[in-house]
Structure formats: structure tokens, C-alpha cells
Amino acid sequence: MKKLVTIGCTILCITFFVTASVERKNNIASSLPTTVLPPSNDDPEQRVPAGCKYTPYQILVWEIKANEGYVPWWYRDGRGANGRPAYSIGFGWNDLGGTRRGEIRQYTKDGVVTMQEATEIMLKELEKYGDYKPDALRNIAVKLHRYNTGQSAFGSDLGSCCGGQSGCGRPVKPIRDSHNRRRKFELALWKHNVSEINRITEENKEKVSKMKTK
After folding, report:
1. Cα separation, 69 vs 58, whole angstroms
2. Which of 1, 26, 94, 131 has its C-alpha lying 20 to 30 A from 69's C-alpha?
3. What pLDDT, on a 0 to 100 scale, did the predictor assign at position 142?
């Protein structure tokens, strides 16, 4: 019984410490100006087709945030190419088996990230992918695919992942369904299916608006 009480107290202390740390960082972040601003829609090569209700930035960022979710601490998320356990943080940023944690060390020194910090990490990751110009929607499609799967893809390659020939090849149904939904959205972007893009982006916007900051 004493051992159970001790374990319970330890878990409560750890939970309190992490929660307090995230709350403190979020309070600080909320008092500062936003450090990462969305790019303008003035670039002719980044304009969306007629009828599309949202900017490239909104379509891209809301899709990632709505599907990855915000987790302020490291959590187990697959394995890296080195065979070691991989962990993700923020909006699904993965350390690939610990091989690239140094890239975001400035944000994770205390083991947690605020939503603002998680957004900065996500945008810096996306910047590394470059642009598929001059098509804004296809540019979004390939970036979304690489952010989620870690693999570069173009055109017909966008409809599959995880070893699947068409759609996701994962055997676990909830994961497969989630991945298939994301692959279909990427194909809608590639094919300029404006009505589908608007519908899904509206759903993503609603999910993100309800997302808790801590």
C-alpha cells in the first residue's frame, strides 16, 4: 500500500510540474507578439484558384494542426531509421529516433513547448521542403505528405503511404482511416478540387479553434 501511495504521489508531482511549466510558458508567450507571421497572398505563384475561400497558409497550417493535434511534451511515435524509438512533440514534429532533437533544442530545454513554439517548429520544418512552384495547391499537397509521412511525393504518389499501393497500408484501422483521409485531401489539392478543399479546410478551422493551448 505504501508503495502504491508513493507511486501515485510521484505521478501527480510529475503531472503538476509539466502542466505548470506549459502554463507558465503559454502565459509568457501570450504576452508577446507573434514571432511567426503567415506569408502574404500577394505572390502570384502562391495564389489559390477562384472559389477557394482560404489562403495557402490557412489550408496548410490548419490541416497539420487539426490532424496532428497539439501535445506539449515528448510522446512515443514510431521508430527512426536507426531502429531506435522515435518521439514527437508539438504538432507531430518527430525526432526520427533522436537523431535531430538538436534542431529544436532552443524550444525544448525544459521538455515542453507552448502552442506558439510548436507552430514555429512546424513552420521551420515546412520551410526546409522548398516550394513546388508555380502551383500553390500542389505545393501544399507535397508539403503535407512529407510532413506526415517523411517521404517526398508528387502526383500519383500522393494517394498512398505506409507500403500501401492505394491508400494507407497500415493494418490498424483507426490509423489507416486517419491516413486515408489525409491522402485524399492531398489528392484534392493536387487536382484542384476546390469544393472539397473548402469543405475540409472549414472542418480543420473548427477543430483548431477548439484546440486548448495547455
Report:
1. 16
2. 131
3. 92
CA distance linking residue 206 with residue 204, whole number of Å: 5
Count of residues in the chain? 214
Q: How confident is the model at residue 166 (pLDDT cuts 50, 70, 90)?
A: confident
The β-bridge partners of 90 are: 71
pTM: 0.77
Distance CA 143, CA 140 (A): 5
Which contacts qualify for 122-131: CB closer than 8 Å, 24 or more apart?
122/61, 122/64, 122/65, 122/90, 122/91, 122/93, 122/147, 123/36, 123/61, 125/93, 126/60, 131/45
Per the CB < 8 A criterion, the answer to whether 92 and 104 are in contact is no
What is the SS3 assignment for 207? helix
User: pLDDT of 36-63, one tens digit each?
Assistant: 334 444 454 567 888 999 999 999 999 9
pLDDT tens per residue across span 103-144: 999 999 999 999 999 999 999 999 998 887 678 999 999 999
Looking at residue 171, its amino acid is P
Cell numbers standing for residue 69: 493535434
Task: Report how far residue 77's alpha carbon sits from residue 97's, in angstroms, rounded to the nearest whole number.
Answer: 9
CA nearest neighbour of 137 among 196, 93, 177, 92: 196
Amino acid occupying residue 58 = Q
More confident residue, 40 or 65: 65
